[in-house]
Amino acid sequence: MEAVIVTGLSGAGKSQAANCLEDLGYYCIDNMPPALIKNFMTLAINQKSSIEKAAFVIDIRGGEFFDEINPCLQDLKLMGLEYKILFLEASDEVLIRRFNETRRQHPLSDGGETLTGINREREVLASIRGISDFVIDTSNMKAAKLREEIKALFGKGEDASFVLNIFSFGFKHGIPLEADMVLDVRFIPNPYYITSLKKLTGNSKKIQDYVLKFPESQSFITNVEKMLKDMIPCYIREGKYHLNLAFGCTGGQHRSVTMANVFAEKFKKEGIRITIDHRDL
After folding, report:
1. Binding-site residue set for ATP
2. Which structural domain, as residue segments, surrounds residue 190?
3. Binding site residues for GTP, as ranges?
4. In terms of C-beta density within 10 A (0-12 exposed, 13-18 middle, 19 or more buried), how is residue 176 classed?
5. Last residue of a domain, one of 103, 135, 158
6. Which residues contact 197 (CB under 8 A, 6 or more apart)?
7. For residue range 66-77, what is the model confidence (pLDDT) as tens digits?
8. Which residues are annotated as a binding site?
9. pTM above 0.90, yes or no
């Protein structure tokens, strides 16, 4: 019998994750006291239940019961049951906005500032985040994208396909918080200073031709492509089924967009699932 422990920060999307897992055939229980998970699993096995996989949403709403999560995980190991821990998080700014939009109070804010509650929660959850099998940052993720991520992770078991999430951005607007790897392409001559190209973007063939004509651009593509092809199998082996790759230039209009498009096309041809987001266009 398989089990998924869904946990993470309040407002990060745990309910949406549970809904998706339920659609994938998981028996889902929200706000489950950790100490009861062993009893549930034992009951399901002994009664030869039709339940083959279950998902439990556990978070700080459980109060003092949440402290029992580590003994619970040890019990599951002793029972020989397989489980994965899915941890959802988001940036402080996004979580604050979500709480404001829903007009709900953070469970650890004690009626005070939402940020105070978020900081407390991060401290409480730090240990379980460190042992989680999958960590998903939902800061810039729509519900459909989160469902896609979860389906990739749990829809096909160990054969879940790897997802390469590619971003372009401008450094003057800040580095994407969700980026696992940031590649700075500001060393390439900037088409912004060419009058006829200034108002175009990296989605234009004229810009692409300009950016890609330089030897340093081609060398960069060759070296980064080789590095990623070497690294992706290692990520998969370690249980990481997505990589957030961000290309940055000054304004996020020309060079970064071009490179994001180039790598999206290259790895799509390799059969890797791709998402692409030109953040600052």
Report:
1. 8-15
2. 163-278
3. 59-62
4. buried
5. 158
6. 191, 206, 207, 210, 254
7. 777 888 888 888
8. 8-15, 59-62
9. no
